[in-house]
Specification:
The complex is a heterotrimer. Chain A is mainly alpha-helical. Chain A has one domain. Chain A contains 9 helices and no strands. The two termini of chain A are 18 Å apart. Chain B is mostly helical. Chain B has one domain. In chain B, helix 1 packs antiparallel against helix 2 and helix 2 runs antiparallel to helix 3. The mean pLDDT of chain B is 86. The radius of gyration of chain C is 20 Å and the shape is elongated. Chain C is mostly helical. Classes of the chains: A mainly alpha, B mainly alpha, C mainly alpha. The interface between B and C is large, with 56 and 62 residues.
């Protein structure tokens, strides 16, 4: 019996760590290698943009490879949260299933970002700059304009926490409100369709920096609180087992 | 939990609170701002009228914070945040306005 | 845990010293103050870009219909009052049954705001005024649009409050959510109280 009391949360923690790896890889690949944090201005001419891709094609290719691998971790990271959501839900686990669907779909958008950049950097010298410009726009729309599934995921986490039946709740209740706030804050990313310059252009403070900072700040906060939740669940299970009671599921 | 209980024998008794008085003030202030901002207010100087409008707006939101959101009876931190918000944002907004 | 809606403790007669308490719960205030801060940044950005072209901003502003804005302010204020009354109804022993109706009234005022907003946007678009027209109109559409987005969320919150207010009793968490939701609705009002003068009135 004593041996069985050890509950392995190692894989769960690894899944959370994969999100941290994602953030670090993102900064290295997109920031240092590709020079795409902040984005090139949507107001650049096609030729100016083409020159950027020609000058840095090898860095961009390498960055894309790193990013392509790192974005895969979105699925592992988000499922760690989803599993804890499952423990918060009773009856119909609709929030859990919605989260799985949203993140499975959302993850495809992420992979398409480095994939498209890699295609542009594949033969930038001979690619028509006009086409390149459209493809590059496409990437930034893929990056920002696809905010809704992620905002909905945040909102679902919030709802799950508020309805959590565990005592105490697995995540602190303020995390719920933080999620609601973040869901609203990334909304301006949807405004990039209207503006080539200014606050809500895809290199603007409102449409890029705010959603970007909010999103990755949110990932860090959720990682920390998820570690705490895992530890709390484990402590409860260990306590329950040592009392010779069945473990909580 | 220490929630104060409202004693109201008739439906109209629900209106017997400082919030109602605050609300009447907010309505009057809105009319005044509207008049000042649409040349019905009798102040020719646009800058002066605008400064009054801004000041009134921030007094209004302070009242909303203190009475409607009930921050008047909240712990000091929350109360301080709402007061600071009104003051700081008013100063910043006025500064930008006067610079323009 | 105190169940709400039951008779007050008898020591109520002594005019007790008010206990400091957080309306809603701590998290509500992360959300509300966080949102208010973001809007404060937007207010500043708007006025900062006005510095570059005060005449253009004044010219464009003259095309706005101040009456729409004023009516909308009044609607939100009335709606906030309904929410305040609903809060008091929930706290009272005898008038609790009024709370759902008061929330519904608040919701209708909010929906009225949205209807007028749509009317206003339609009028602008019919006059060929879009976010592309000028910087001023870009800010006009984006800031009022963001506010309208908050209002729509607020309407959803009010529906939840309506459901809660129908319950004979609320748990501690439900009551906290009710209070927090009411505060969120007041925040929607509060933001408009600054936006209206800023965009429509200040010249």
């Amino acid at each position: 019996m004593a041996l069985k009391t050890e509950i392995d949360s190692g894989l769960m923690k690894a899944a959370v760590w994969s999100g941290i790896v994602l953030i670090v890889a993102m900064v290295i690949a997109q920031g240092f290698l590709m020079h795409f944090i902040p984005p090139p201005s949507p107001d650049l001419s096609a030729d100016e943009l083409a020159q950027k891709f020609i000058d840095r094609k090898n860095e961009i290719r390498l960055g894309c490879l790193i990013q392509c691998m790192a974005w895969g971790f979105w699925a592992t990271w988000s499922m760690a949260i989803t599993i804890i959501m499952r423990k918060m839900e009773r009856g119909y686990p609709i929030l859990t299933y919605c989260s799985i669907a949203l993140n499975g779909g959302g993850y495809v958008f992420f992979i398409l970002i480095p994939m498209t950049w890699a295609v542009i950097a594949f033969r930038p010298e001979t690619l028509d700059p006009e086409i390149m410009q459209i493809m590059n726009d496409w990437v930034w729309f893929d990056f920002l304009f696809t905010w809704p599934p992620f905002a909905v995921f945040m909102a679902l986490i919030g709802v799950a926490i508020l309805k959590d039946h565990n005592v105490p709740t697995l995540y602190p209740r303020w995390v719920a409100y933080l999620n609601f706030w973040c869901a609203i804050l990334i909304f301006p990313a949807g405004l990039i369709a209207f503006f080539h310059t200014g606050l809500f252009a895809y290199d603007g403070i409102g449409a890029f920096w705010m959603p970007f900072a909010v999103f990755f700040g949110w990932m860090i906060t959720m990682s920390v609180t998820t570690f705490q939740a895992i530890n709390r669940i484990k402590a409860t299970q260990v306590a329950a087992l040592s009392d010779d009671e069945p473990a909580l599921v | 939990m220490s929630v104060h209980t409202v004693s109201a024998d008739r439906p109209a008794d629900l209106l017997k609170s400082s919030s109602t008085v605050v609300w009447l003030f907010l309505i009057v202030a809105t009319v005044v701002s509207w008049a000042l901002g649409t040349d019905h207010g009798g102040i020719e100087n646009h800058t002066a009228a605008s400064l009054i409008i801004l000041a009134v707006a921030f007094v209004k939101i302070r009242f909303i914070g203190l009475y409607f959101m009930e921050l008047k009876d909240a712990p000091l931190v929350l109360r301080a945040i709402i007061e600071a918000y009104c003051l700081v944002v008013f100063c910043v907004v006025t500064g930008f306005y006067l610079a323009g | 845990m105190a169940s709400l809606g039951t008779a007050p403790p008898p020591d109520d007669t002594e005019a007790p010293k008010k206990v400091k308490r957080i309306p809603g719960e701590e998290g509500t205030w992360i959300f509300i103050f966080g949102d208010m801060t973001v809007f404060a940044v937007f207010f500043s950005v708007f006025l900062q870009s006005r510095i570059g072209d005060p005449d253009g901003f004044a010219r464009d502003q003259a095309e706005l219909n101040q009456n729409f804005g004023a009516i909308n302010t009044a609607l939100l204020l009335v709606s906030s009052l309904f929410v305040v009354l609903a809060m008091r109804a929930v706290q009272s022993t005898t008038q609790r049954h009024l709370a759902p109706r008061l929330i519904a009234a608040a919701w209708l005022c909010g929906a009225g705001f949205l209807a007028i907003k749509i009317l206003e946007y339609t009028e602008k678009i019919q006059h060929d005024i879009t976010p592309q027209t000028s910087d001023f109109f870009m800010y006009y559409f984006v800031l009022t649009g963001l506010h309208a987005f908050h209002l729509v969320i607020g309407l959803v919150v009010l529906v939840v409050l309506y459901k809660l207010s129908q319950k004979p009793e609320m748990t501690k968490n439900q009551y906290s959510f009710f209070e927090g939701g009411a505060c969120f609705w007041h925040m929607v009002d509060l933001l408009w109280i600054v936006l209206f003068p800023l965009i429509f009135l200040v010249r």
